Model the fold of this input.
Amino acid sequence: MTTLAFQTPNQVRRAIPIAAAHLERGGLLAYPTETVYGLGSRPRQADVAALAALKGRRQDKPFLLLVSGRRMVEAYGLVFSDAATALADAFWPGPLTLVLAGGEGRLPDALRGPEGGIAVRSTGHSGIAQLVGALGFPLTSTSANLPGGPTAPGVAAIAATFGAAIANGTLLVLDGGTLGNVPPSTVVDCTRAQPRLVREGAIPKSELRRRAGSAAP
Done:
């Protein structure tokens, strides 16, 4: 099985144990989020390396982690600053990625960016949130495209780009339908006392400041 329907509650419920088993075998997933389709794996060194090879990603450009919430983040030793706490309270679950310090020895160094932090997001996509909660561990995430290419609006584009990995069983696709033209998540670096806007995406800077006040970059 290479593609699973992943739109209705019943489809999500049936797909979750199949996707979990695929990940436990070291497989990779393509899946919908509230922004764009993503590619992901378990947060293990070998799996992250396989994902980087599939994506054709530079080793110095790490993936983010989708989490079920703050408790999962802290279980891996990542640290919420005051600003990160305020931003997460205001925008999680949702399209806000926070880069946090910590996690040494608990997460692969390949996930660590040049600033020393690891990027995490609590997804607002109900089905993927349920999947991550059922897994009990974070799911790595990167847009389902090749570097510099357009993001995939649906499974047809994913199949066109990653057809070989789908055919050989490496990549399992969760079909969440066609997604709208939504920008990727906004990214804020919270590894220092003063947060820094890394990428303005689905949440504009003005909205960060409106809802998080002085905690916003």
